[in-house]
Amino acid sequence: MADLGRAALVVTLGLVVYALVAGAVAAITNRRRLAASARNALFCAFGSTAVASAVLAVALVRHDFTFQYVAAHTNRTLSTPYALSAFWGGQEGSLLLWLLVLTGYGALAVALNRSLLRDLIVWVVPVIGGIATFFAFMLVAVASPFTTQTATVDGAGLTPSLQNPYMVAHPPMLYLGYVGLAIPFAFAAGAMLSGRTDERWIVATRRWTLAAWAFLGFGQLLGAHWAYVEVGWGGYYAWDPVENAALMPWLAATAFLHSVMIQERKGMLKVWNMVLVALAFELSVFGTFLTRSGVVNSIHSFSKSPIGAWFLAFVVISSLFSLALIMWRLPLLKARTKLESPLSREAAFLYNNLLLVALCLTVLWGVLFPIVTQVVKGETRTIGRPYYDFFLRSFGLPLLLLMGIGPLIAWRKTSLRTLGRTMLWPGLVALACGVLLVVAGAGSSRPGLIAYTFSAFVLATIVLELVRGTRATGSLVALVARNRRRYGGYVVHAAVVLLAIGIAGSSAYASSAESRLTPGQSVSLAGYTLTLRGVERRSVPNAIETRAVLDVKGPWSGTLSSGDNQYLHPPEPSREIGLKTNWATAEDLYVIADSANPKTQVVFVKVLVKPLVNLIWIAGIVFLLGSAIALWPDAREQRRLATRLALLRA
Amino acid sequence: MSTRSPARLVVALGVAAVLSIFLLYTAVAGHSTPTLTPSQLGHHTGKLAVVGVVVAPVRGDSHAASGLRFGLRNIDGKSGVVRVVYHGENPPPLFKVGRNVVVSGNYQHGRLAGDNVVTKCPSKYTASKQS
Question: What is the pTM of this model?
Answer without folding.
Answer: 0.90
